[in-house]
Protein 1
Amino acid sequence: MIIMVNIILVPLWTAMAIQPNLLQAKGIQVLPPVNFTLTVTALAEVLLHWKPNPDQQQNYTVIYDVEIISPVQEMYDTKHTHSTRTVVLHDGFSAQIRTLLFYNSSKIGSEWVTEELPALAGDAETSVTNLFCIVYTASYNTPSLHCNWFAGKQAPTDTVYLLFYRYNNYTEQCPDYLQDKWQRNVGCRFSKTYIDPKQIGTLIIIHVNGSSKHAAIKPLEQLFNQDTIEKINPPRNVTISLEQNDTLVTWEKPISPLSKAWFCYEVIIHNLKTGTNQLSKSTSNDFKFRMDVTSRYSIQIRANRQYNEGFWSEWTDPLFIGEEQKKNQVGWVLILVTVTTCFITLFIAMACKMCHLWSRLFPPIPTPKNNLKDLFSAKDYEIRYNFSLAPHRECYTRARTYTSETETEVGSYIDDLGSYNEDLYCEVLEDSVI
Ligand SMILES: *[C@@H]1O[C@H](CO)[C@@H](O)[C@H](O)[C@H]1NC(C)=O
Ligand SMILES: *[C@@H]1O[C@H](CO)[C@@H](O)[C@H](O)[C@H]1NC(C)=O
Ligand SMILES: *[C@@H]1O[C@H](CO)[C@@H](O)[C@H](O)[C@H]1NC(C)=O
Ligand SMILES: *[C@@H]1O[C@H](CO)[C@@H](O)[C@H](O)[C@H]1NC(C)=O
Ligand SMILES: *[C@@H]1O[C@H](CO)[C@@H](O)[C@H](O)[C@H]1NC(C)=O
Ligand SMILES: *[C@@H]1O[C@H](CO)[C@@H](O)[C@H](O)[C@H]1NC(C)=O
Ligand SMILES: *[C@@H]1O[C@H](CO)[C@@H](O)[C@H](O)[C@H]1NC(C)=O
């Protein structure tokens, strides 16, 4: 860009260095525009406005040469006396303009007039950092917008950040923030936005400012192209069919107002027998592959905009095809069953021991006034009885009942020491039995 600008500038400046004298001799003046102003008309939008020099001779064609100096260098010509730019303004903005007069098939420039906007006020390192936004188009008409950021390094703990987005003429403040451990806003969700999913390449302008009692919070602006921050929906209706010796995978485009032609896909075919993955790209809505009949495969697909501009969708749920042929399948099943049975038996045995022990210490319905001897004998009885019926569930129930009733000293003791372990053992036991 800069190189190109230089190449264009050189002949222009050469022409200007030679021409003015010649023009003066002929009584032709090229005068700079007047009343050049910069006005912020919306978030990250500046209007450049100027007037033709009233002393400029009217019988020559003039245009204006505009150079944006910062934040991003840009040069262009215009016939108009105004121009609007969308650009981040937190670090200020500066531009210069001049009149260009056409004379004898060359362009002769006037002096430049420069104007600038100061940087937005605020203390160093109080701006948010790592600002990032994603557009979700889960339903056709109301894309949502999620943004996240980090608080600035020097942002006091009482900082309140506010986020605004602008899309064409619409500006909205964030209605729903996520907060960090100091309750500072560090994320935002717009569940509905004015973002039009049919638009291509429209900018989403984000402005985050803030306030604090202890520091001036410097605003930050950032521009996102809606195409590059859209999280694409996954492909739909994936089907697998056999076509002669090939396996044909087909799917439909993701939910989106954009047509089929806008999407590309990745297909991952995972061979469960060999453990190998085959990743392929596709711009059509189907994919063929040759199966090894002794293998089982899982197939998943994800979508993106063509040229991978957006964020890849989630992978679709895996679809399986083929039967893996194992030789000693029956043998393996037998071994598995035996091992599982052993473990279950062991667990039951251990759990019975545990529950028995705890039950001894604590009655099923402990009342603070019971004397200890009564308590033990009553419990022994109940436990034996219960074990013969449903030991595991009883064990679980007991643990639960107990922790909710911890008024006696014995109660608080078990609370400290035992309830967690007991719950844990019994839950494991239940899981393994069920
Ligand atoms: C430029 O601005 C000044 C002061 O605002 C005004 O008096 C003058 O008429 C303007 N010039 C033109 C050409 O509009
Ligand atoms: C433009 O007008 C000036 C006088 O106002 C005259 O000297 C000049 O020759 C004119 N140029 C053209 C191209 O008409
Ligand atoms: C226009 O330019 C050509 C060469 O660039 C020159 O020969 C000619 O004299 C010029 N005419 C006038 C009117 O300046
Ligand atoms: C924004 O609003 C102005 C007038 O209010 C209108 O002329 C313009 O077309 C609108 N632009 C967009 C992109 O909606
Ligand atoms: C933050 O920006 C919004 C939108 O430009 C503005 O209305 C608001 O006054 C600003 N707040 C602070 C604290 O700068
Ligand atoms: C899924 O695909 C099949 C076969 O192409 C088609 O018959 C069916 O209508 C599709 N289902 C949906 C929900 O699009
Ligand atoms: C399919 O595979 C079988 C066995 O490998 C082969 O005989 C047959 O020609 C193949 N058919 C096609 C259409 O490739």
Note: Confidence is low (pLDDT under 50) at residues 1-18, 366-434.
Protein 2
Amino acid sequence: MAARRDGPLMRGVTSTPFRRYRLVVAIAVGILVGCVCAYLYPDGLFRSSSSSLRDTIASVNSHQDASVQCESSERVNMLKSELASLSEKTAELKKQVRDLNMKLQLTERKRDQAQEQFLALGPQRKAGPFGTVKGLRTNPTVLPDESVNPRLAKILEDVAVQKELIVALANSNVKDMLEVWFENIKRVGIRNYLVVALDDNIEDFCKSKDVPVYRRNPDQDVDSIGKLGGNHAVSGLKFRILREFLQLGYGVLLSDVDIVYLQNPFDHLFRDSDVESMSDGHNNMTAYGFNDVFDEPSMGWARYAHTMRIWVYNSGFFYIRPTIPSIELLDRVATRLSTQKNVWDQAVFNEELFFPSHPGYDGLYASRRTMDIYLFMNSKVLFKTVRKDANLSKLKPVIVHVNYHPDKFPRMKAVVEFYVNGKQNALDPFPDGSEW
Ligand SMILES: *[C@@H]1O[C@H](CO)[C@@H](O)[C@H](O)[C@H]1NC(C)=O
Ligand SMILES: *[C@@H]1O[C@H](CO)[C@@H](O)[C@H](O)[C@H]1NC(C)=O
């Protein structure tokens, strides 16, 4: 046991001088080898293995990084999809808020109008305090009279929405445009529209396309104009035809067929006036009215005379409420168109609407509202201004009326390309005005 406990070195130390000598040589050789190694491998013998250890540790770390990255990219994707769905939800809610606001505005307007009428028609009363008085602009509607045209009454019951509808007159001369007209109305989702067909061809065409159509009972006068009449003559017919619609108690949005519908116009009406019309004006001044100063220098001190100017209302697109002044307007225009020669229905329509009473003349007192020129846009506004303006060209009009250009059909199609199909350069080929 003792021998085993003593190690061989111990035994060596206590042994002979020869053995001691061998031990010294061995130590010297060891030191020498150590020095050589230190010279050859200054970084140490285990460098490579220790660096591979570092690599291993790094690679473990990077694996951890990768799995962290993997986890976080999953998280990012999740957040992204969450964000997308929340954005969608926000947009949807915003739309609902907009719709509700619009409904609220409409209801408030109706309430205000009813109040106005109630006060105006009630017993005579004193004026209120400064700034609180308000005249009546929303006249009461007539009591519907079905007896004037029971057949039409039945059609309107089916077609109208909240006692309102779009009405267009058409004969075969405008068939191409009529098709673009109702295709866009359908696309927007408008249900309350009606074509008054002036000949068989158009009546059949509408029926084949599932478009609500109405054919009047034969009427010698009206029918010959309707079948053979040019643009202006047919345009004058509408004042006669519209009367029955108003008598039946319907608000009518009278529409030419050279119009592209991009939104539902019934969401954008004020309904506070007898006539609410789109304008031929091309900017705020010309559309909404301005003080045009006439200069006559020979008058010296009084050289300036102020005049009221406004570009005409477009008689091809207006909303007319079923009121007494509205029906009076239709009668007055129809009478003048049938008794005076060389008059243009649009000019007559405006003269009746705007000229006040004067000696020998009783003016019409219909209330009027000019529609927003960028929502109810004429083709001069579009081609001269809007298409060149980065901000205005982003707005989506409710309708575009190609009233200022004779090449109506190609321009209508270009308007559809631009606003519906998003083709940014669709309007570019056309000049601002027509080149005769
Ligand atoms: C035109 O009128 C609208 C509505 O009143 C207004 O918002 C807009 O700033 C006006 N534009 C110009 C150029 O005066
Ligand atoms: C468009 O609107 C922006 C912001 O209101 C305005 O800074 C810019 O001048 C407008 N551009 C044009 C061409 O009117």
Note: The two ends are 131 Å apart (CA to CA).
Protein 3
Amino acid sequence: MMLKIIVELALVGAIASVFIVAAQGSAEERAAEEAAGRRYMRTLDESTSRAKNRKTLAAWEYQSNITDFNQERQLQVALEVADQEKEAWKETMTYLWHEFEDPELKRMFQKYSKLGTSALPEDLNQRLISAINNMQATYAKATICDYNDRTKCDLRVEPEITEIFAKSSDAEELKYTWLEWHKAAGAASKADFIEYINMDNEAAKLNGYDSVAEWWLSEYEEADSEDQFAALWDQIKPLYQQIHAYVRRHLRLRYGDQVVSAKGPIPAHLLGKFFFKHSSLTARVSVCNPLPKSRAELTRLLIECGSESSILYYCSASDMFARARVPDFCAIMRSRIAKNNP
Ligand SMILES: *[C@@H]1O[C@H](CO)[C@@H](O)[C@H](O)[C@H]1NC(C)=O
Ligand SMILES: *[C@@H]1O[C@H](CO)[C@@H](O)[C@H](O)[C@H]1NC(C)=O
């Protein structure tokens, strides 16, 4: 009986040691594979940076100087870069990066394993790039007539329309300009926008997503990102509503009850900015003034935090919160800026 147990233990020991040796062997192999992956990633990252830089310069040349020649060139460069990315992707996928130990290296491989819009066949990619270029050209070239002189019809987004929104406080002029420009530039972009969505959805499918919405949400690297946003919105909504009511009250004081209702939405054309990239509540700073000691504090905040977006936070921080919270906010902004600009 005793002998049987010893033999069994010896057997188990022998089997276990075989496994340990096997594991050690493959651990070494895995370490070598990971080191090779690291070297490869360094070269890939460098060549991709160069390619993206080339693509960005060509796009900039087109966007800042919209000519047929520059458009054609931008398209060519974008297609060449897509080709290069496709080639690199094939090599990237030969690495067993799922097995790597270093989470950061794994994450880089994970990101490079998604080919993005370069996954599209060249003809579809060309349609996607053309749709984007057309929308940019429409945006830059759309013209409307002057509010005061309807025979003068050469007003463009830059500089005339932007200027009107920055300077005019005539609610009728602002409304007219807002509607006319959206008719001229928005409606004219519809077909290109539909093409853009269709091509992007094709690219999403080639990258393993059901839709471009799912693809973009994956960038947050959180399976429940939508639930997280909903929870954040619930949290911030009371503050948002107070800022909204505050801005609306000041706009009522400026434009009158006939133009801005007491309880309804804020008319977009009154917010002093023509193009809302960030939020419709990035209202003109002057609306938040006069605040006690506000200008000096705002200047200090902008210099210290080094970000224009702090204007909005400043309005909310100084009006809705106690002033003591402003330094906290600065610390948050600074760390966020540092994180985005390593
Ligand atoms: C605009 O692009 C054209 C090429 O289409 C070029 O000849 C011209 O010099 C560019 N203009 C400026 C101001 O860069
Ligand atoms: C239209 O006329 C008003 C009043 O004279 C003036 O304030 C405004 O700047 C003019 N707008 C344009 C676009 O010239």
Note: The radius of gyration is 28 Å.
